[in-house]
Amino acid sequence: MANVLRNSVRRFATTAARAATAETVNTYGIRVSQAQGVVDTLVGAIGNTPLIKLKKLSAETGCNILGKAEFQNPGGSIKDRAALYVVKDAEERGLLKPGGTVVEGTAGNTGIGLAHVCRAKGYKLVIYMPNTQSQGKIDLLRLLGAEVYPVPAVAWENSENYNWQAKRHAERLQKEDPEHGAVWTNQFDNIANRRAHIETTGPEIWAQTIGKVDAFTCATGTGGTLAGVTRFLKDVSDGRVKSFLADPPGSVLHSYISSGGQLKERSGGSITEGIGQGRVTDNLENEVKELDGSLFISDEKSIAMVYRCLDEEGLYLGASSALNVVAAKEVAEKLGPNHTVVTMLCDGAYRYADRLFSDKWLQSKNLRQAIPKHLEKYIVLP
């Protein structure tokens, strides 16, 4: 009996010691884990991404430059948030019923986000995309269960643009199967996209910085992220937080904002994907006048930052994320030391590695010389 008692006491003491040690060595991790708890499905894991301090750039500018690690979303990008909310919006409005179909026109990460969300929720997914996209992207969407239609790449104004074809497809399905429903989620002008960032991304940034964020910047494609985060941060801070658009070559938004809405100048194209725009979308329209300015970011700056982030921070980022980091650095320099600037690390470089780290591709884009000499070691592909 005495031995049993001693063993019980020993086990209790050992268990308590282990718990105490775990809390001591991983206090932050345990606190985050307790807050996250257990989510019912994949969609519950969307969002709540960490802010990562970019130490080298922060030291250079005297500011806290923070990147929101959106590549940690289940689908690997920030577009998981928009995907979830456009589907939620269709459910709330009764347009989508169990077994229904989601249809979208997308050339990139929104399609991947929708594929994950639709699989988790039991919906069918149809994607229209320009036939200029890589076979790898088409294969990935099909692997995730989507029905994919690559169509000729034509301008937005053309009725055969992939977005309008997606809309017509959804309308046909709705007539054929009203019992289950079909919806064109229309990511560019569906303000449920913007709502995702008002309700999730913006509040997360405010909470993570304990309200000490001074500025936010990011590029825009649909406009949802920039508009939603701007709206929330402006409201919660009574206008104190500044917001800046970052724009690549080939987009009209920098000229539109810097000219006070007078110009829509477009020149050249960009290596970045999913950002830049030829118009002000419905997602962006209400917030465009709230912006405190815009920055034009060249491809040379973006590609150099891809390599800098990998070398200095261990962050393996796509070109759009790198563009955002360049913009955050320039906003920090504009504001001066002792400010906190937040941007979005939209996705990783995994889907773009065959280009971003290819000597041949860099040469073809006249970007080889933009890579600093000491970083050329990362050009590992022919």
Helicity, as a percent range: 40-55%
Major sheet summary line:
6 strands, mixed
Count every beta strand, where a strand is a DSSP E run of 2 or more residues. Answer: 10
Strand content is: 5-15%
Describe this structure in words.
By secondary structure, the chain is an alpha/beta fold. 46% of the residues lie in helices and 13% in strands. The protein contains 15 helices and ten strands. Helix 6 links the parallel strand 4 and strand 5. The chain is globular and about 60 Å long. It catalyses: O-succinyl-L-serine + hydrogen sulfide = L-cysteine + succinate; O-acetyl-L-serine + hydrogen sulfide = L-cysteine + acetate. It comes from Exophiala bonariae.
SSE inventory with pairings:
Layout: H1 2-25, H2 27-36, E1 51-53, H3 55-61, E2 64-69, H4 79-92, E3 101-105, H5 109-121, E4 124-130, H6 135-143, E5 147-151, H7 162-176, E6 182-184, H8 192-208, E7 215-219, H9 224-236, E8 242-247, H10 253-258, H11 282-285, E9 293-296, H12 299-313, H13 319-335, E10 340-345, H14 353-356, H15 359-364
Parallel strand pairs: 2-10, 3-4, 3-6, 4-5, 7-8, 7-10, 8-9
Antiparallel strand pairs: 1-2
Helix pairs in contact: 4-5, 4-8, 8-9, 12-13
